[in-house]
């Protein structure tokens, strides 16, 4: 039986509740034979002046800690309808004033495109030495993924005619962001052009992942080491082993063993601990595959909510292309049972998706 594991942020949950409560009430009244009209909550006047709101928001951001973080997020979320601009300004100001450690856990729930662009631009171009380190790599990656325009200064510089000279912490952060990005849009293509300029740093990070406790990340490290070995030269000259057209993305997948495709829903894993550095091992040779050469995978069951994930299991044990709608789905691959692969789709659209289709074909 399929199961859904939701990861819904507070602002989204509030909107869901506001929509569902009137609908449920209507259904109850209709079932009892009573007439009812859908009711929508009207937004009243602002509860505070702009000056008072700024003071309250600033105080909440300055005093937040792990014990009351969710309460702070909920309170600020409730104020967004009136004071979005003020919250944006306070988040950006706090980041620039070195309040980053306290603000970072709030950004996933509260940041918008304006905040993301300001934080990435400031950190990358104005205070790179102070802010662009591995501590903040996850939030930089999250902001760039959710708000693609925020990545523009970062990618423009790294894909320019001359690769920027970076300190070791800066190079590690750049490589970590690129290595951890899901294979959607042009991120993989961009990474294959950028990472060869910082090859040693990238390989050191991949070796740590390879020997870490996270099986999924270890598997991805094997794929990356193979990609950098075989495709780095082509990437540096503009080659791209993956194909993309419009909003559909075609992904090349390394060989694994498996049987007939099946599907279920699942939750992503966490990052591994750091491991000692060593020379990267040579990728193992794939075993021959004599199964089906192509197929189509379709989600079954009810609608897949925003941010929920759907897993296809037992993908064919061969190097394959995956074709899917990258405008609605994030996709990543992970080891499966035996020597199979799992394809994990995350609904990144603004609402539930009733249908998802992935076409796969074996690469000769």
Q: Can you describe what's shown?
A:
- The chain is α+β, with helices and mostly antiparallel strands and 364 residues long.
- It has a domain at 247-268 and 289-364.
- Helices cover 45% and strands 14% of the residues.
- It has twelve helices and nine strands.
- It has helices spanning 10-31, 50-63, 69-96, 100-110, 113-126, 128-131, 137-146, 152-158, 168-180, 187-194, 199-210, 215-236; strands at residues 243-245, 248-253, 262-264, 294-298, 309-315, 320-325, 329-335, 341-347, 357-362.
- The model is unreliable at 1-39, 230-246 and 250-286 (pLDDT under 50).
Brief characterization of the structure:
It contains twelve helices and nine strands.
Quantity of strands, as a count: 9
Main sheet strand line-up: 1-2-6-9-4
End-to-end gap: 35 Å
Helical proportion?
Answer: 40-55%
Radius of gyration: 23 Å
Name the beta content range. Answer: 5-15%
Counting helices, strands and paired strands, the structural category is alpha+beta
Biggest β-sheet: count, sense, barrel? 5 strands, antiparallel
One letter per element, helices H and strands E, the order comes to: HHHHHHHHHHHHEEEEEEEEE
Give the rounded overall mean pLDDT: 76
Shape: globular
Low-confidence segments, given as residue ranges, are 1-39, 230-246, 250-286
Please tally the helical runs, counting DSSP H or I stretches of 4 or more residues. 12
């Amino acid at each position: 039986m399929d199961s859904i594991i939701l990861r819904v942020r507070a602002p989204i949950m509030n909107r869901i509740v506001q929509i569902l409560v009137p609908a449920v009430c209507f259904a109850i009244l209709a079932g009892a034979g009573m007439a009812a009209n859908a009711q929508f909550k009207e937004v009243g006047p602002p509860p505070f002046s702009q000056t008072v709101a700024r003071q309250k928001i600033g105080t909440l951001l300055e005093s937040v800690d792990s014990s009351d973080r969710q309460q702070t997020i909920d309170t600020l979320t409730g104020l967004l309808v009136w004071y979005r601009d003020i919250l944006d300004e306070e988040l950006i100001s706090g980041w620039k004033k070195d309040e980053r450690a306290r603000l970072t856990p709030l950004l996933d729930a509260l940041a918008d495109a304006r905040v993301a662009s300001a934080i990435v631009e400031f950190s990358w171009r104005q205070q790179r030495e102070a802010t662009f380190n591995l501590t903040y790599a996850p939030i930089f990656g999250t902001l760039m993924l959710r708000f693609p325009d925020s990545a523009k200064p970062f990618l423009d510089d790294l894909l320019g005619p001359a690769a920027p000279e970076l300190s070791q912490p800066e190079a590690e952060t750049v490589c970590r962001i690129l290595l951890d990005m899901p294979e959607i849009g042009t991120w993989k293509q961009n990474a294959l052009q950028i990472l060869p300029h910082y090859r040693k740093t990238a390989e050191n990070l991949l070796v740590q992942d390879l020997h870490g406790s996270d099986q999924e990340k270890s598997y991805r490290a094997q794929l990356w080491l193979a990609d950098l070995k075989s495709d780095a030269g082509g990437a540096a000259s503009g080659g791209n082993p993956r194909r993309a057209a419009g909003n559909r993305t075609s992904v090349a997948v390394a060989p694994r063993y498996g049987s007939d495709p099946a599907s279920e829903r699942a939750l992503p894993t966490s990052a591994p601990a750091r491991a000692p550095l060593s020379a990267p091992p040579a990728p193992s040779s794939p075993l021959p595959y004599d199964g089906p050469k192509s197929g189509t995978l379709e989600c079954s069951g009810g609608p897949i909510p925003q941010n929920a994930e759907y897993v296809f299991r037992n993908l064919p044990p061969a190097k394959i292309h995956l074709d899917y709608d990258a405008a609605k789905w994030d996709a990543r691959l992970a080891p499966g049972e035996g020597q199979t692969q799992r394809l994990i789709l995350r609904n990144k659209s603004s609402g539930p998706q009733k249908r998802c289709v992935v076409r796969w074909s074996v690469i000769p």
